[in-house]
Amino acid sequence: MNFYIYNTMSRKKEKFIPVHKGKVGIYTCGPTVYNYAHIGNLRTYIFEDLLKKSLEYDSYKVKHVMNVTDVGHLQSDSDTGEDKMQIGAERENKTVWQIAKFYEDAFFEDCNKLNIKRPNVICKATDHIQDMINLIKTLEEKGYTYIANGNVYYSIDKFKNYNKLAHLSMEELEAGSRVEVDENKKNPLDFVLWFTNSKFKNQIMQWDSPWGRGFPGWHIECSAMSLKYLGDTIDIHCGGVDHIPVHHTNEIAQSEAAVGHTCVNYWMHGEFLVINGGKMSKSSGGFLTLSKIQEQGFSPLDYRYFCLQSRYRKQLIFSYSALKQAQSSYNKLKDKIASIVSSVKENERKDEELINKYKSKFKEQIGDDLNIPNAFTVLFQVIKSDELTNREKEILIESFDTVFSLDLLKADNNKLDNIDENLVDKLIAEREEARNNKDWVKADEIRDKLKDMGIDILDSKNGTTWKTRK
Ligand code: AMP
Ligand code: ZN
Predict the structure, then answer these.
(1) Which ligand has the shortest distance to the CA of 226?
(2) pLDDT digits over 299-313, tens only?
(3) What is the pLDDT of residue 128?
(4) Is residue 222 marked as binding?
(5) What is the model's pTM?
(6) Which annotated residues bind ATP (predicted)?
(7) Pocket test for ligand 1, best of 34, 41, 241 (most atoms within 8 A of CB)
(8) Which residues contact 324 (CB under 8 A, 6 or more apart)?
């Protein structure tokens, strides 16, 4: 089936053609680990998770690489302001290394709660300093750099079409990046590849380099690590829209100058979550985390459901009342699904052709540049359908949920406490006996009873096994 992606580079929806048939390489810009991720950041990671799972649904084998920024990111994306890691360390009276470890763990815990699948490769900037140095050396050899006041700068005037991703004039780019005047820069949009002359007196993260002891600029890490793990032609590169005019623009300048050709085939960018008309930002301090919304009585999956109701390229306005509405719709949906599942009969029809018809409808929507709201419409068609048996509905819901990841078939957790395993085994044995006696009514009754207890059973040649829906 065709998969369509809106490519920021062309500003068009394009048919996705992978570099290698059946495989997709995706690079997503990861967190800067100096604070908790806010729910805006998490919206972007949910979008990227949906992308990956939608491609997997379409039978692609996905290799997903994500960086963790634990060095080099200054407050402004364009080399100005304080060092973000140092800010975190000073705020909490810890070392930058402790801060990085703590917030990296916290980030993956949030992802886990949101059913965001772990990337295949997670690469930390501080583990790839040599790769960055090598790349800067290549850029230097090719004449794209200059040294001023001890720092190595990238000269954007040497790179043709520097503004091709942002579709902005150089003047607009300059105005947008609010750059502090840096006397060392030949062009205000030039950026630092390697700092040796750090303005931060107590900079702890430092490494030896051909240009002196120092640390890398922020943008070079994503070029170095994407080239290392995904090669010099990457299928898809993602991030939030804020990355278009600076970070990804600079990444293109670095990677393409180094290898001499286009390195990314499709650029995808998630729009912002906004609150009270403004963007949510980590550095402003007034941001909402997943734990904060949990304290207000919302589950992480309520938030995931909330995000799934709008398309990734549209801004999403956050409010607690909108989240409350999402929570209530999500609960209603789960109730409807629970009643379908509890009505599945033992020997109900399972028509593959019919099942595939709905799977194709679903695929068409997710393959339309991730039209998740329309994919939900297909889910509701399945739920309401007169032509599908409950068994077929259950199979389809389970299948769609590999993308939604909303635990649609899981029973409420409180039903799963204190499971009496002996009782489960006894019921399964009784059901086995009923099946041997072709007493389908009794076998169905027992299966329903187990379902009510939050237990799924699986019949195979080797007998019956069970698992909780937790
Ligand atoms: P950071 O940890 O600040 O580097 O950001 C991590 C990711 O979140 C990046 O892809 C950003 O583009 C994205 N992001 C930042 N703010 C928001 C927001 N308010 N809504 C959605 N995504 C955001
Ligand atoms: Zn990046």
Answers:
(1) 2
(2) 999 999 999 999 999
(3) 97
(4) yes
(5) 0.88
(6) 282
(7) 41
(8) 298
